[in-house]
Structures are given as C-alpha cells and as structure tokens.
Design a protein that fits this description.
This protein has 255 residues and is α/β, with parallel strands linked by helices. It has a single domain, classed as Ribonuclease Z/Hydroxyacylglutathione hydrolase-like (Metallo-beta-lactamase, Chain A, 4-Layer Sandwich). It has seven helices and 14 strands. It has a seven-stranded mixed beta sheet. The protein has a seven-stranded mixed beta sheet with strand order 7-8-9-10-11-12-13. The termini are close together. The model has no long low-confidence stretch (mean pLDDT 98).
Length: 255
C-alpha cells in the first residue's frame, strides 16, 4: 500500500497570508504546508481522504493521474471539502460519478456547498457525485478494507479511517476509548497536532504525543499543523525517533 500526503497544514495553510513569522517566511520547502489530505493506493484501487481548497495544486504536484475510485471525507469544514469541484477532470476521464463516503450530516453539507451538482436540470460540466452515508461499519472499496473511527472535533462528530495497518486521524480533540481500541497494532499512524498551546477543537502537540504513546504505532506522523508549532527541522530534532512531522508530498510505502 502506498500513501501520498497531499497536505499537512492547518485551515489557513502555511505560509499564512501576510504573516512574517519565521515559519511563514522559511525557505525550507517542508515548512510550506497546503491544507490536509492524502491519497491511498493498493493494487488497482485508489482512494482519497478529504479534498482541500488546494487540491488542484496538490494533484498536479503529487498525484498527476486521472484515476480515483472514491473520496472519504472526515467532515464538512471547507479546508477538507472545498476542492471537490477540482475532481472534474478525473470524473470526466473516468466517465462516471465520483463516489463520496461520509457521515450523513457531511453529505447534507456537500449538497448545499455544491448545489449545482445536485440540481434536477444539471448544468453541463458540473461534477457529479454518488453520496454514500457511513457510520461505524467497515467499508470495502476495491482492495481496501476501511474501518471508520469516531472522533470528536469540539462538539462535532467526525470520522478518521483505519485501512489495514494504517490510520489517518485529523481534527481530533477527543477519541472515545472504544474507538482507541480500533487503533492498536498500527504500522503507521497519521494524527493532527495543531500547535503547542491548548486548542478547543484540535489536539495540540502534547495531546497528539500522548495519544501516540497510548496507541504505540511503529511509526507516527503529525499533520494539520499550524505555523505556531514551529519549523519542520526544529520539530524533527525534538520528537522521539518514531515520530516525525509529515510534509507535503511525503510518500509512505507499506508492505
């Protein structure tokens, strides 16, 4: 299985418009962070997690192909869904609607945000989506067996995903104990760490590290990071050996 990280930034991305802090002005490419998302490939199956506002740039840079079988949405905030319209070239090339898997409230939001894709008299060229509601039951998409994970993002219930021995968690503030049980024995865990200070709706760095310590994956990567977390190279030196800050374009190969 191959995982390509499309973006690792917070909702504003890095650099933040008009910010002159050391992270936003860093020359290190790994300090340039687009909004979060990932591509998962196994055999002939390709699934994308979330569709950020930067999706066109991300796909051109890190996955320049016209094949995606489905999209898994963690939740409906714009930094995770605004790029769905940019899937049009892939939808047109595949000659079929894109399958979208998400919680019912997320799918309702998609219908409102992309209303032009759901009108009875469909506008020519509008992207077409097949919406599939999910809860906690496993999903099979091609060669991928996907286990949804219940996560609380402040007061909003959202989803993370376990695929084989890999898991992707973003925008988490709390993971219920019964859901934590689904996340043991991982080879790779990707998890959000917004900043160093406590935040009301996201794990901060220490909360992410505490969660990793409880789950004990072989390897963990941090994502959904804001500029306040610091420079990539400084963070890399600070973290334990089995934990790294992810970066845009990172490729992880799992056997």
């Amino acid at each position: 299985m191959k995982i390509t990280i499309l973006g690792t930034g917070s909702s504003q991305g890095i650099p933040i418009i008009g910010c002159d802090c050391q992270v936003c002005t860093s020359p290190d490419p790994k300090d340039k962070r687009l909004r979060p998302g990932a591509i998962i490939e196994k055999g002939q199956t390709t699934v994308m997690i979330d569709a950020s506002p930067d999706l066109r740039q991300q796909l051109l840079s890190f996955y320049n192909k016209r094949h995606i079988d489905a999209v898994l949405l963690t939740h409906e905030h714009r930094d995770h869904v605004a790029g769905l319209d940019d899937l049009r070239p892939i939808i047109f090339a595949q000659h079929k609607s894109m399958d979208i898997y998400a919680l019912p409230h997320t799918l309702e939001a998609i219908k409102k945000i992309f209303f032009y894709s759901f009108e009875e008299d469909l506008y020519p060229g509008a992207p077409q989506f097949n919406l599939h509601p999910i809860d906690l039951e496993p999903i099979d998409i091609g060669q991928l067996h996907i286990i949804p994970i219940k996560i609380m993002h402040y007061k909003m219930e959202i989803r993370g995903f376990r695929i084989d021995n890999f898991a992707y968690i973003t925008d988490a503030k709390y993971i219920p104990p019964e859901e934590m049980d689904k996340l043991h024995n991982l080879d790779v865990l990707i998890i959000n760490a917004l900043r160093r200070k406590i935040h009301y709706s996201h794990f901060n760095l220490q909360e992410a590290l505490d969660t990793i310590d409880k789950l004990k994956p072989k390897k963990a990567y941090l994502t959904h990071m804001g500029h306040n977390i610091g420079l990539h190279q400084d963070l890399l030196k600070e973290l334990p050996q089995n934990i790294e800050p992810a970066y845009d374009g990172l490729v992880i190969n799992l056997k």
